[in-house]
Every structure is written in structure tokens, then in C-alpha cells.
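Sample intake sheet
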Amino acid sequence: MRKKFLTNSNINYGASFNKKRKTIEFKLASYGAQNVVLCVFKNPMGDIPFFEIEMEKEENLFKVSVPIKKLLKKRNVFYYGYRIFGANFKKQQGYFAGSDIGFVSKLNEEGDRYNPNKLAYDPYSLELSHLHSSVSTNLEPFRSGEKNYLSDNSKIAPKSVFKIIKEQKIYKTTERSLKDEIIGEVHLKDLTRLLKMKEKGTYKGAAKFVKEIKKTGVTMVEFLPLQEFDSNIDNGNHWGYMPLNYFAIKKSYSTNKNPMEALYEFRNLINEFHKNDIKVCMDVVYNHTGEGRTFGDNEDAALFSYALIDNNSYYKLAQNAHYTNHSGCGNDLNTLNKTTENLILESLKFWINQGVDAFRFDLAVCLMDISRSGYAMYDKQGGILKNLKENLEKSGHKILEPDEKGDGVHLIAEPWMCSGANNYQLGNFPSYFAEWNDVTRDTIRAISIRPENVNPKAMRNVIEGQPNKFSGKLRSINYVCSHDGFSLFDMNNYDAPNPETKGGFRGEMCSSYKGDITEQDNEIRKQILTLMVSYGVPMLQFGDIFLHTKEGNNNSYNLDNKINRINYKLDKRKKDLSNYIKELIKFRKENKIFTDINYNKKISYYYPNGLNISEYDDSYWKNNRSNIICFKINGEEFNYYVAISKDKNPIKIILPKNVEDKKWHLIADTKENYINQKGKIFSGEYYELKPLTACIFMEKGVKKLWN
């Protein structure tokens, strides 16, 4: 185990103890602010601060040091926020909260939105006292329009929480490279919400469920966003992709609602996962904030924190000081600005210190955008990515390559964003990033659902980890389904999104076998088999291991109900499919050749008649009517032969001749619902693949097999 000194002094900005712990230092960065007043309250709904002081300005930094006794006397917690003045709303004598004294404009040409009537919470605080929707469903007290601009919202505004944080020990997991992981993507609340336990839907509930997760074979859990968000604004965002604070853990997932208890419970969850040798990946959203989208036009934006502190630094502004929107969420973070860059870097460091093992960057192409206007420009070494690894490693946090093993952190990119030319950048991130591979996703789906659109070359690229995109290096996160779309079960059972469910909908490839249960189940098994024999890092929605259904909804971002909650009570059909998937995961973990970094150098391809296929046979590789791919992988101990058919008719395959006293053993057949790690001996001149079937064979000695 490693001991981390997890106190408020770990962060360079916000509120922290000085070295001698006699004072609390407050630091706030803003390039455009002229005056900042610190307001400290005894309780979350206090409108009159018990302590108030103007902060000193040094270039772009505002700071003040306050004796601990003044803030923590007879209490162990306080709440604070900032009133901020700038060029569009100047600090003048006589100003009082709720007045227009000093007002110039709501929004000037430079993009300033300073408004001291709106209390701003600290972007570096480790907890928010409450959420905006808990006091106002329409957010009127936070809006900047004519009706609300001058109203003082300090009584109900969320405030930053300061409490002395206890030290905790963080346990380490086994040092593994990313290539050895099986990733399970899951929403923390939905993981246990339907279980019969007191702590369901919480960090404690997830910690109690960890042994069941381990039974599935998953070695890394990728949680949908856990940084504080408000799920009740912007038409709801249950998944969490509208962040409010990058240092605060989601408070509502804690069983204990007292100040800072959520962070303790999250650390205990980390420890419980690590004790069971399961790593934790956080989905982080550094492309926009929850301060932007819903809030009407630009003249009536809601002001929470970042826009009040330094709108022009934190956000990218285009014409008329309007926000750019390449994220599709209303306000793009300005990662070219040092203030924002520091926020992201410090946030990553903080979560690494809590024991987080990996990060998945939502809409990561936004981090590659080096433009300063509404027109996107991309550079894989530009913006914050230019020095990301270097800056993190300067602080002692090792960033690992995907195939590298050690005490460090792995980074994963979602290689697209919602708008802008060339907004899909698969393969263009720095080498230390693994990337969600949508090309592999779509190809695996098409092999089953749209076979006429797929040729063997595309199938080969899946098997070899898209070497054309990643230069043969291990960087591909392979998946069939994620939170963004159908569940695995629904994709193969619905031929269109179900309009009767509430939520969003998107066009997406789905079943061609509606009503044909036998074929649907074969397709599910084949998709997961293809995933598990392909080079790269396999990822599944955790619910897909249990054939979770969202009743045909394929964009359930705003639904906090049974649509997203995983149901572990399975009928016989789903139980059989679930066991098959678990066995394929087990097969992948126990047969390391499928994770070998030299995988593509040990592979050879065959025609159904058993002859080798030339690499230059374009009549086969590029022909959509070539309906099968067969390949052999030579391992140090065992050889493997895999056949994946997209033919709607049976195909006879001849396996390569055995060497010495070895025999081919059938390990899996998706159409026959057969999987057995030991396998059964194949004898005969050929093996007949049923229509649209996939099979795995293992070559090993007969005696050794049964010993």
C-alpha cells in the first residue's frame, strides 16, 4: 500500500493551509477581474457573511491569508464564495449586494461577465454545499437577464465547503499494462440501484458489490463522471456529462451527507476495488462545464462560477463574445489559457492522489483544438496536450504508455467532438493515449448486422487493432457498445430506437433479425467473441455482461430510472448468454497471446480450403462478397485458429495441418452456444460453420489438454 497525505494543502489554488497550519490561504486566478471579495458563511444558506475581506491582487492572482481562529473558531467547517468585479461591473464606493452601483454592461466586447451580485463558488473547492436545482428549478436566481441581473443570490447560491480532511491510506493494485485489462464501463448509481441493500446507488454500495464485479472477469471499472454535476438542470443529465466542479466528488452518491464525507466514501471505494485487484478509471469532462447550455440565449446565461471569475479565460469566445460550441454542450473550455490548463492539470493530480488509476477524456478532440475562434484547428501536440505528460510527471505522476507496466496512470481519449471540420481524430493523439475505437465498434456490428457492407480487410484491421490508424501499436480500446447508444441486448433485438421510452434518440446500427431469437443470440455471442480475440483493450458496458435492456432507448442520458439501472435477475435465455460472455472474458485473460504486443507478427490468414492468403490478394481482401476471415495465431505453448463468418449460408473450413502429436480442439462455437476452455477434439477433414457463425480452435497435445 502507499500512504498519501490527503489534506487541503495538496492543491495550489483555492483554500488551503499554509505550511505551519496557522492560517488558511485563499488563491483565485483571474486575468480580467479588478477586485475580488472573499465572503465566508457559517452555513450553506447564509446570506450575511460572518467574515468578509477584499483579496490582494498580484498580476492575475488574487490571494489573502486568514488566521485559522477567525474561520474555524468553535466549528470544524465553513462555507465561502467570491464577489468579483471587473471592467463591465466596477467596484465603486457605496456598492452593496443587489445594487447596480458600478454597473457598465452585462457583457462587454472582451467577453467579461463580472457580476458581484452573483456569488461565485471556488473552482478548486473539494465540495459544494448544495446544487443549483435544489433551490431553483428554472435557475432564475443565477441568470444574467434583465429580470435577475441585479438580484443578490448569496443566500441560496451553492458555496464552497472547507473542512479539515483526514489522511487516508490508498492501497495499490497489481502493476499491469492497459493491454492486460478488461474494462467494464458503468454508472456508479445504476450499478447497485436495483439490489436489495441499504447502500444501493452509493459509493458504499459499489464497494460492497466489488466481489461480484470480480467474478465477471472485469479488471478495470470505468465510471461515468463522478465529478460534481447537477443532474436536474439542462433537461436532466443523469449520466453526469455537465460538470460543475472538477475537484468535488458527486455528493449525492454518498450515504453520509455531512461535509466532506463523500470524499471519504469514494476513497474507501478505491481501496476496496484495489484490494480486489480491480483498477478504477474516471470519465472526465474537460471540454465544457454545466454552466452553459440550458440557460437561454447569450444575454440570459446562468452564472455559477467560471463565467463570473474569468469568462474570457475559462471559455472560448467567438464573434460577439458568444461561446463556441464544438462540444455540443454550449460552452467550450479554453484549454489554451494558462488558467484553464492549470485547472485541468491540478484536477488530474488531485484524483491521482486519491488513487485513481486511469482517465477517459470525454470529447477529447476539444483538447486538440488550438483555435481561438469558432473554427476548429487540430494539433495532436497542441494546446494542453503539448505538455500534459511532462507537466504531470514533473509532479511525480508517471503517465504510462498503453503497453507499459508500472506504477502510473493510463490515459484514454474519446477521439471526436460534436462539430467542426475534421472533428474525428482517431489515431492522432500522442502515443501515451489509448483511444476509443469507433471504427472497430462499427465493423464488429456490421459483420453481424450489415455484412454486405464489410470486406475482409476491414475485419482484418479489427483483428490487428487497426494498425493503419495506430502504426501497429497497442492503442485501440475495442468495444461493441458503450453508454452512448444501444445496450448489447437491445442492439440485437430492436430494429430501431423505441419511441415509447423517454430520453434522447440517435441514428444507430441495430438488428436485422427482429423476432429471430436464435439468430439474435448468435450475433451477441459472435460480437463478444470477435471483441475478445482482437488486438487491443476490450471494453464492455458492465450491464451488457448481464444482457441489460434499456427497452430500446439508445440515448438514455437523462433517465434516472429502470432504463439505466442494471437488473441482475436473469431469465434462462439471458443467464445462458451472460455465462457465455463471462467464459469468453475468462478465455481472453487466460490466453495471453491475444494481448501480446507482437500479436500482429504472429498471425497468418487462410482461405476456407486451408491455403494461406496472400497479403496482396485484393480480390479477397477488398471484396465485400468474401464472407469469411480465418486466421491462425502462433503462441509459445498453444496455437489458435479463429473463423468468423458473415455468410448467410454454411461454410466448410479446413484447418491447418497439426504438428507432431497435437490436435485441434473446438473451444467455442457461437451458433451452437458452445464454449469450453478445455475444448473437444476436432476430427475430420473439415468443420462446417453454420451461417453467420464464429469459432475458436486451440491446437495442443491430447494428454496435456486433459492433465
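Comment: The domain at 2-163 is CATH 2.60.40.10 (Immunoglobulin-like). Residues 488 and 544 are 6 Å apart (CA to CA).
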